[in-house]
Amino acid sequence: MKTYITFAAVAGLAFALSASGGNAAVAAVPPQGTELFKCQVHRGGGRDTRPDNALETFLWCWGHGVAPEADARLTKDGVAIALHDATLKRVGHGIPKSLATAKIKDLKWAQIRDVDIGSYLDPSYSSVRITTIDSVLAAMAGRPDRLLYLDEKGAPPELVAELARKHGVEKQIYYTSPKFELVARWQNVVPGGFGMVWLGTWPKDNSPKSVARADKFLESTLDRMEATGWKGISQVQIHIRTDLSLPDPFCPSSDCIRRAIGRLHANGITVQAFTWTEGANKDALRRIWKLGFDNFATDDPLVLFELLPELGNRDVSNKGGKRR
User: Fold this and answer.
1) Could you report the per-residue pLDDT of 21-54, keeping only the tens digit for each?
2) In terms of CB atoms within 10 Å, which end of the chain has fewer, N or C?
3) What's 145's DSSP letter?
4) Cis omega before residue 144 (within 30°)?
């Protein structure tokens, strides 16, 4: 597949922040479009495009100029691995039930390192194995174009920072969590590093009640983050439930999302959209983009790859947040 995207603008921002010792949360927000190139592929492979959290999948993402997400868990003996689920029940192939249902945190690395985690998707991926976070970071060394969203699933900021420094890639990571306190800890151990907070309520519908609840959650969470001075927060991801049959198709509501984006941009924070219901619908993505988002996360990377050139080539000269 033809590669359309580059990380040059992002790498430049990372190095500028590193040189100044600044915090990404107080940096200027680039015009909408330039930040597009930090788009994230959920779990690396999306819903069913490539195997979850596999090194081969991450290389595929980087080859297309987007950033994969790695979910960082710890084994019983303290090895940080990339795996989304708490057990191997969904992705583990050809293993006994006792191993499939055991919690990863109760298993040692030697017990799971040879498990096939690719065949759940397709037999052609039968050689895919669990990768360590150390191996993922090693693949980023010397390649500033390779960025990673590392979603905390048990691996604390301090351990990730230690591994990242070994490979010199600590400024290529977005340490990610819904717990903004952990993102603040990442800032403590990696001054000037990137941190993302993801916010979602997973409503079952777009009823007025669900929308009101999502709006309240988004606004109240931003209030709490503001009370901390936005410490360590470079980016916020907003989860969006989409129903294009409604006058306002979004939950949270369009007005609430616009207010949130304006508030975050005014504080130098970029905003990422993730619709888990309509990620394969280009019209939905176009309408989300018009709300003012800086980039996307997706479960449908092939659709996003096709759409990115269209979004990236439009006039963005009057977009963006407050300059600081």
Assistant:
1) 334 334 445 555 554 456 999 999 999 999 999 9
2) N
3) T
4) no
Q: Which two tokens stand for residue 198?
A: 């993801």
CA distance 289 to 168: 34
**Contact yes or no for 194/234 (Cβ under 8 A):** yes
3-state helix, strand, coil in the chain (%, to 5): 40, 15, 45
Pick the closest to residue 264 from 296, 300, 225, 228 (CA basis).
225
What is the DSSP code string of 35-90? GGGG-EETTTTTTTTS-TT-HHHHHHHHHTT-EEEEEEEE-TT--EEE-SSSSSTT
Contacts of 275 (CB under 8 A, 6+ apart): 239, 240, 241, 242, 284, 285, 288
Task: List all residues 6 or more positions away from 227 whose beta carbon is below 8 Å from its beta carbon.
Answer: none
User: At 62, phi and psi to the nearest 5?
Assistant: -60, -35
How far apart (Å, rounded) are the C-alpha atoms in residues 289 and 33? Answer: 10
Q: What is the pTM of this model?
A: 0.86
> Helices in 168-229 by DSSP H: which ranges?
180-189, 208-227
Distance separating alpha carbons of residues 137 and 161, to the nearest angstrom: 11
> DSSP code of 300?
-
Classified by CATH at the fold level, domain 8-312 comes out as TIM Barrel (3.20.20)
In this predicted structure, the answer to whether residue 318 has a pLDDT above a threshold of 80 is no
Instruction: Pick the closest to residue 233 from 199, 272, 184, 266 (CA basis).
Output: 184
DSSP string across 147-175: -EEEEESS--HHHHHHHHHHHT-GGGEEE
Sequence spans of domains, the chain? 8-312
Encoded amino acid at 286, one letter: R
**Cβ(72)–Cβ(82) below 8 Å:** yes
DSSP assignment string, 233-267: -SEEEEEEEE-TTSSS-EES-HHHHHHHHHHHHHT
